[in-house]
Automatic annotation (TrEMBL):
Organism listed in the record: Prevotella heparinolytica
Matching Gene3D superfamilies: Vaccinia Virus protein VP39
Domain of life the protein comes from: Bacteria
Protein keywords: Methyltransferase, Transferase
Gene Ontology molecular function: methyltransferase activity
The name this protein goes by in its record: Class I SAM-dependent methyltransferase
GO terms under biological process: methylation
Amino acid sequence: MNKLTIKTCPLCGGTHLERALTCVDHYVSGEVFHLCRCRNCGFLFTQDAPAESEIGRYYEASDYISHTDTKKGAMNSVYHWVRNYMLKRKAALVMREAHRKTGSLLDIGTGTGYFADAMQRRGWQVEAVEKSPQARAFAKEHFNMDVKPHTALKDFTPESFDVITLWHVMEHLEPLNETWETLHSLLTEKGVLIVAVPNSSSFDAKKYGAYWAAYDVPRHLWHFTPATIQQFGAKHGFILAERHPMPFDAFYVSMLTERHMRHSCTFLKGMIVGTLAWFSALVKKERSSSMIYVFRKK
């Protein structure tokens, strides 16, 4: 198997890397993967993950919800309820941060297309890209949306989008620095980049340690904190304008983690930890399980 072996930190270029955690792929393979941390800047990443050409089979799980849209089980029912609520919140956030009610939007890693469809129905000109053929087929069938493969990013005209969104996508993308460069190129001068990623310094991440479901090895290659993602933005010509917590994520992630740990009463225990995480994020939003970051060009 071809592996992504990282010898220099993608953020600072440092070579002093240390093993931080050992995690298990609970979704598909049961394989063990190690997380490494840069001793210079603190950036955390999955070491020796399958290369991009081979990662596809690690998404082939019937309950990998962003690609299959499964409603099986209480946890996925919660996911769907929260998603419907958050679609409205995300649309409102986009329009507020972009200072416009309509415009051109690129949704990268659109999954099954719910957000892209929601923005299109609000009058936005939407382009969407997604790597999974299964997810693209779902978007076509349910929303009549022609979602492009991820290779189409290179075909878009520079400075052609008022808003670019990546909802829990950045952590999956192997060419990390190249992606940031592409985003800067495609965004208009006064455009807005909105990135949502798990927060590896969150309350629930610290509680669960290596079992934290949002490490999701080997599908999640990069494990951001508020500090490291701000540094990535600055490195590629962006200013961090706003940060917003995603407190609902803690409930789903905690339930999933409890299931991975083979605990009893996973739904109840996940709800309890999610509630504690919610209150923790109310006190300090940087402890939220996931965060939304709003970037603008310098």
